[in-house]
C-alpha cells in the first residue's frame, strides 16, 4: 500500500500550509452535543473512594487517575482505574478495614466494559492510589502499568490475557513517598522505556495540620504551601526488566517541585524526548534532553516556569500538542481558580510565550479548577480541540469563596485554527451539563467507530464515560508508534498536521496510545514519522487514505 | 468620609450595629451572617444592605454580594462591576468598571476577553488616571510595547516599574524575557534568576494577605505576613506586622510570635533592648522558658553573661530537665569564672 523511504530533508513546512481547517464545528443530527454520557450503557460502574476523613488529609482530594490501554492486546482499549481509599494512617490500619482495589475493565470492542479485576492478578492493587502511567516497559509488546500512590508505588507487568504481576521489587524501583504523575518514555534512545515519576508533597498523615477556620464544618484541606515538595525520580530501564535510579546522573538534581503532571515530548524538534513537569504552586520545569538521556533545566530561558505575568500557578494536568498548527508542540497546563489554564505557545529556539489570552482560554478558564485535559480533534475537522475536567480541591470551598463550588462542569473548547479555541458551553453536551469533581480525563476510541470518546474520573464519585457524537468527518488512526513519536500528516489539500503518539498524560492518567488525525474532507497522502532517537522516515500512500487504521508494523 | 460612615452606622438598626461590632472584633464571617439576617428581615433597609455588600466583598462572598446588590441604585454600579469581575463574569462587568479604582480591572477584564483594542484604550485611561509613576501601569504599558515589538522601550518601562516597586514581579519577568529577546541573554538570565528567587517569597506574601482578608486580627496571620516581609528584606513592614501580631497574640500564640518579633529586632535592627523588652513582656504573659532562653542567648551574644545566666537560671526553674539550657548556663558561668 505504501512506499517508505528515509526523508532527505527533515525540516517541516511553513505555518501557511499547516493543518488548519475552516469548517464550522458541527453536531450530528439527533445529538444534543459533542459528548453523551453512556456510563450506564457501557456498564462502567467504578466509584472512586476518596477515603474522606475529618482530618482533611490532602491525599484524599487529589486522587482519581486512570489509563486507557489495550491490556489484552485484542485491538481495543480497556480501562484501568485507580482507587484511593482512606489514607493509611496507623489508626486506619488498626481498624483493619478492607481497602478498595484498583479496577480493570475489559472492552468488548463496542465500548461495553466488563469488570475484569478478579482475573487481573496484581492489578487489583489496594494502595492509596493516585495516578498511573502506561507503556511497554518490558518490551514484550504488552502494555505495562506504573501506579503512583501515597505510599509504595507498584510496577505492574502485563502477562497477557488481562493479567498483571507486581514486578516492583524485581525491577529495583522503590518509592514509598507521595508520588503523583508518571510517564514512560525512551529518554536515551536505546529502545526501551524509561520512567519519570513526580514527587508531590511531604505530608505527615499521622500529624495532620489544621487548616481553615476552627468552627465545625470549616476545616479545610491545606494549601501545598504548608508542605515541603518532594523531588522527582527518573528510572532508567536497563532493558532486562530492571530499572536504575538515574535521577542525579541524568541531571535532575534540583527537582523538588510539588509535581503533579509530566509529559515527555520533543519540544525542541531535535529528535529526542524532553520533559515538562507541572508543579503545584511552584514553578513548572522544562527539562531539555541533551540527546543521550541526560537533561538540562531550560525553565528560565523557555519562559514555561510561570505564566506570562511572572506568577506561579497550581499546575495540575497538562497536554502537549500543536495547537496553533505551526508544526511544533505547544503546552497547556490546568490550574486553580482565579488562575487561567495556561497555554504556552512554542516560539521556536527554545522560547515559549504565554498565549492564553490570544487563544481565547483566559476568561473561560479563570474560575474553574482544571485537572485532566486532552488535546484531540474530537469533531475531526482537522483542528485540535481541548477538553478539560474541572473540580475544586476543597470540598467546603463555598464557605470561603461563595463563587466557587466543589463540583464543577467540564469544558470543551473547539479548535478554530491558528491556535484559537472557542468555549463550547452547552454544545459540549452531557460532559458539560453536570458538575463533577473531575480529576483524570482520558481520550480514546472505546467503541471502535474511529472517533475519540472520553472517560472522566472523579475524586470521590463515579467515573463517567462519554461517547463522542461530534465527529463530522472521517479520521485516520495511526497505531504501533513508539510513545512520543512525531508524525506530520500531509493531506491532499496541501495541509500538514503535526500529531504525536500517546499516551497523553492528562492528570494522573494515560489516554490512548495512538495518533488520531481528523481528516475533514481531506485525505492523507504522506506521513513524516520521527520516533524518539530515530531518523525521520517517510510513508507515501499510493492511494490517499480517506480514513481508517494504519499500523506502523512492517512497511505499514 | 469617616463622618459619613459614622452617620451611616448610627442610622443602622441595633442588630446591624451589633454585627459591625463583631466585624471590628475580627469576627468577620459571623458579622456578615448577622448583617445578612438583618437584611433578610428588612429588605428595604438600603443602608444595611450597602454595608452588607461591602463586607461580603471583603470576605470573598461575591455571589451573595451580587444578590444583595439587587435593589441598590445606580450609584452602586462600580461595586457591581467589581463583583461581576470577581465572579469571572467579565462581559457583564466591563460596562460597570469605571473610575480610578476599577480602571485596571477593566483593562484586565477586556484582556481576558481578548478585546485587545478596548484593553489598550483602558490602559490609556489608566495612564491618565493613575499617572506614569504607577508601577502596574508602567508594567502593563511595557507588556503592550513588547507585544508590539518595541522591546527596548518596553525594557525602559519594566525598569521604571521595578524602581518604584521591586516586588512588581510581572515587570521583572517581562524584563528578563525582553532582554533575552533583545540578545542580552546573560543579563536576561540574571534577571530571570532573581525573579525565580523572589517568586516563592512573593507568592507566600500574597497568600498571607488573603488569609488576613478573612481574619485580619488573627495574630498568626499577621506573624506569617511578618515572616514574608522579612524574607523579602522589607524590615519595616515586617516589624509592623510582628508588632501588631504580638499585640493581638493570646495563649499559645504568644511565644512563637514573640520569638520571631524579637529575632527581627535583635538580628535586623541590632536593638537588643527592644528585643529583650518583647521577650520579657511575652514571658510576663506566657511564662514560657523558651522566651527566657532566647533572651539569655541574646545577652550572651553581647557578652552580658551575668544577665544571661540569670535568664537561663530562670528558665531552668520552669524546665529543670532541659539539658540544652543547662549547657548554656554552664558556658556563661565558665566565661564569668574566666573573667573573674
Label the structural class of chain B.
mainly alpha
Radius of gyration of chain A: 22 Å
Helix content of chain B: over 70%
How many DSSP-defined strands of chain B?
0
Return the structural class of chain A: mainly beta
Mean pLDDT of chain B, to the nearest integer, reads 93
Mean pLDDT of chain A: 92
- Determine the strand fraction of chain B and express it as a percent band: under 5%
Helix content estimate of chain A = under 10%
Shape summary of chain A:
globular
List low-pLDDT spans of chain B.
1-7
The total of helices of chain B stands at 20
Major β-sheet annotation of chain A: 5 strands, antiparallel
Strand order of the largest sheet of chain A: 1-40-39-35-36
Q: Which parts of chain A are unreliable, with pLDDT below 50 for 5 consecutive residues or more? A: 1-16, 22-30
Q: What's the N-to-C terminus distance of chain A?
A: 8 Å
Itemize the secondary structure elements and their pairings.
The complex is a heterodimer of chains A (556) and B (340).
Chain A: E1 2-6, E2 35-37, E3 66-69, E4 78-81, H1 90-95, E5 103-107, E6 113-115, E7 129-135, E8 144-149, E9 154-160, E10 163-166, H2 168-171, E11 179-185, E12 194-199, E13 211-212, E14 219-220, E15 233-237, E16 243-245, E17 259-265, E18 274-279, E19 285-289, E20 295-297, H3 299-302, E21 318-321, E22 330-333, E23 342-348, E24 351-354, H4 356-359, H5 362-365, E25 370-376, E26 385-390, H6 397-400, E27 408-409, E28 411-415, E29 421-423, E30 435-436, E31 438-444, E32 453-458, E33 464-468, E34 475-479, E35 486-491, E36 496-500, E37 509-510, E38 515-518, E39 524-530, E40 537-545, E41 548-551
Chain B: H1 2-11, H2 14-24, H3 28-41, H4 46-58, H5 62-69, H6 77-86, H7 90-93, H8 103-112, H9 116-130, H10 135-147, H11 151-164, H12 169-181, H13 185-214, H14 219-231, H15 235-248, H16 254-268, H17 272-286, H18 289-301, H19 305-318, H20 323-339
Amino acid at each position: 500500500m505504501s512506499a517508505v523511504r528515509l526523508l532527505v530533508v527533515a525540516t517541516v513546512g511553513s505555518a501557511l500550509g499547516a493543518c488548519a481547517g475552516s469548517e464550522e464545528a458541527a453536531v450530528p443530527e439527533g445529538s444534543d452535543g459533542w459528548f453523551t454520557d453512556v456510563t450506564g450503557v457501557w456498564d462502567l460502574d467504578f466509584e472512586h473512594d476518596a477515603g474522606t476523613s475529618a482530618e482533611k488529609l490532602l491525599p484524599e482530594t487529589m486522587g482519581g487517575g486512570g489509563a486507557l490501554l489495550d491490556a489484552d492486546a485484542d485491538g481495543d482499549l480497556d480501562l484501568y482505574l485507580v482507587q484511593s481509599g482512606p489514607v493509611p494512617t496507623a489508626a486506619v490500619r488498626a481498624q483493619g478495614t478492607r481497602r478498595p482495589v484498583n479496577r480493570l475493565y475489559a472492552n468488548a470492542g463496542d465500548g461495553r466494559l466488563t469488570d475484569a479485576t478478579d482475573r487481573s492478578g496484581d492489578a487489583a492493587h489496594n494502595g492509596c492510589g493516585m495516578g498511573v502511567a502506561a507503556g511497554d516497559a518490558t518490551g514484550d509488546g504488552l502494555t505495562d502499568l506504573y501506579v503512583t500512590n501515597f505510599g509504595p508505588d507498584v510496577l505492574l507487568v502485563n502477562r497477557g490475557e488481562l493479567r498483571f504481576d507486581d514486578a516492583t521489587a524485581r525491577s529495583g524501583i522503590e518509592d514509598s513517598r507521595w508520588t503523583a504523575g508518571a510517564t514512560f518514555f525512551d529518554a536515551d534512545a536505546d529502545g526501551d522505556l524509561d520512567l519519570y515519576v513526580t514527587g508531590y508533597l511531604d505530608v505527615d498523615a499521622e500529624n495532620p495540620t489544621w487548616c481553615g477556620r476552627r468552627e465545625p464544618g470549616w476545616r479545610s484541606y491545606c494549601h501545598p504551601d504548608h508542605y515541603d515538595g518532594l523531588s522527582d525520580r527518573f528510572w532508567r530501564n536497563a532493558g532486562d526488566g530492571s530499572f536504575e535510579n538515574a535521577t542525579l546522573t541524568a541531571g535532575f538534581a534540583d527537582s523538588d517541585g510539588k509535581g503533579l503532571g509530566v509529559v515527555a515530548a520533543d519540544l525542541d524538534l531535535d529528535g529526542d524526548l524532553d520533559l515538562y513537569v507541572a508543579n503545584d504552586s511552584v514553578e513548572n520545569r522544562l527539562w531539555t534532553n541533551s540527546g543521550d538521556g541526560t537533561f538540562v533545566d531550560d525553565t528560565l530561558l523557555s519562559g514555561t516556569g510561570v505564566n506570562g505575568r511572572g506568577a506561579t500557578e497550581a499546575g495540575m494536568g497538562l497536554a502537549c500538542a500543536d495547537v496553533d498548527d505551526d508544526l511544533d508542540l505547544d503546552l497547556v497546563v490546568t490550574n486553580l481558580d482565579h488562575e487561567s489554564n495556561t497555554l504556552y505557545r512554542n516560539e521556536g529556539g527554545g522560547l515559549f510565550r504565554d498565549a492564553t489570552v490570544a487563544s481565547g482560554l483566559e476568561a473561560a478558564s479563570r474560575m474553574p479548577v482544571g485537572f485532566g485535559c486532552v488535546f484531540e480533534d474530537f469533531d475531526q475537522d482537522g483542528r485540535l480541540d481541548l477538553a478539560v475536567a474541572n473540580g475544586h480541591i476543597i470540598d467546603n470551598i463555598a464557605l470561603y469563596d461563595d463563587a466557587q463550588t466543589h463540583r464543577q462542569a467540564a469544558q470543551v473548547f473547539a479548535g478554530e485554527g491558528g491556535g484559537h479555541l472557542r468555549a463550547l458551553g452547552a454544545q459540549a453536551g452531557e460532559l458539560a451539563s453536570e458538575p463533577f469533581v473531575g480529576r483524570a480525563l482520558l481520550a480514546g476510541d472505546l467503541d471502535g467507530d474511529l472517533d475519540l470518546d472520553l472517560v472522566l474520573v472523579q475524586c470521590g464519585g463515579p467515573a463517567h464515560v462519554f461517547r463522542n457524537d461530534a465527529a463530522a468527518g472521517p479520521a485516520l488512526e495511526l497505531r504501533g508508534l513508539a510513545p512520543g513519536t512525531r508524525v506530520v500528516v500531509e493531506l491532499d489539500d496541501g495541509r500538514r498536521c503535526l500529531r504525536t503518539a500517546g499516551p497523553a498524560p492528562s492528570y494522573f492518567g494515560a489516554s490512548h496510545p495512538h495518533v488520531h488525525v481528523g481528516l475533514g474532507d481531506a485525505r492523507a497522502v504522506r506521513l513524516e514519522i520521527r520516533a524518539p532517537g530515530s531518523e525521520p522516515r517517510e510513508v507515501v500512500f499510493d492511494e490517499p487514505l480517506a480514513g481508517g487504521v494504519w499500523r506502523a508494523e512492517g512497511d505499514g | 468620609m469617616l463622618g459619613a460612615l459614622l452617620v451611616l452606622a448610627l442610622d443602622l438598626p441595633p442588630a446591624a450595629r451589633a454585627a459591625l461590632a463583631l466585624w471590628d472584633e475580627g469576627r468577620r464571617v459571623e458579622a456578615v451572617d448577622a448583617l445578612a439576617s438583618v437584611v433578610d428581615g428588612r429588605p428595604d433597609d438600603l443602608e444595611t444592605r450597602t454595608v452588607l455588600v461591602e463586607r461580603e466583598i471583603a470576605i470573598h462572598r461575591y455571589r451573595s454580594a451580587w444578590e444583595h446588590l439587587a435593589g441598590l441604585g445606580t450609584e452602586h454600579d462600580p461595586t457591581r462591576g467589581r463583583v461581576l469581575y470577581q465572579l469571572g463574569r467579565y462581559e457583564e462587568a466591563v460596562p460597570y468598571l469605571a473610575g480610578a479604582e476599577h480602571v485596571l480591572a477593566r483593562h484586565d477584564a477586556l484582556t481576558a476577553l481578548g478585546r485587545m483594542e478596548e484593553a489598550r484604550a483602558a490602559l490609556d485611561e489608566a495612564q491618565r488616571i493613575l499617572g506614569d509613576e504607577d508601577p502596574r501601569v508602567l508594567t502593563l504599558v511595557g507588556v503592550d510595547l513588547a507585544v508590539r515589538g518595541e522591546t527596548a522601550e518596553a525594557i525602559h518601562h519594566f525598569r521604571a516599574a521595578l524602581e518604584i516597586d521591586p516586588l512588581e514581579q510581572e515587570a521583572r519577568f517581562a524584563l528578563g524575557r525582553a532582554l533575552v529577546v533583545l540578545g542580552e541573554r546573560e543579563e536576561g538570565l540574571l534577571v530571570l534568576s532573581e525573579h525565580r528567587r523572589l517568586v516563592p517569597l512573593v507568592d507566600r506574601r500574597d497568600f498571607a494577605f488573603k488569609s488576613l482578608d478573612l481574619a485580619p486580627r488573627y495574630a498568626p496571620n499577621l506573624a506569617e505576613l511578618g515572616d514574608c516581609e522579612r524574607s523579602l528584606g522589607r524590615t519595616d513592614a515586617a516589624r509592623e506586622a510582628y508588632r501588631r501580631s504580638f499585640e493581638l497574640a493570646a495563649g499559645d500564640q504568644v511565644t512563637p510570635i514573640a520569638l520571631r518579633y524579637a529575632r527581627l529586632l535583635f538580628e535586623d535592627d541590632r536593638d537588643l533592648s527592644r528585643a529583650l523588652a518583647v521577650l520579657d513582656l511575652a514571658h510576663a504573659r506566657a511564662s514560657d522558658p523558651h522566651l527566657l532562653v532566647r533572651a539569655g542567648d541574646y545577652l550572651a551574644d553581647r557578652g552580658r553573661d551575668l544577665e544571661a545566666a540569670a535568664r537561663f537560671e530562670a528558665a531552668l526553674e520552669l524546665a529543670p530537665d532541659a539539658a540544652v539550657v543547662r549547657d548554656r548556663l554552664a558556658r556563661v558561668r565558665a566565661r564569668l569564672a574566666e573573667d573573674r
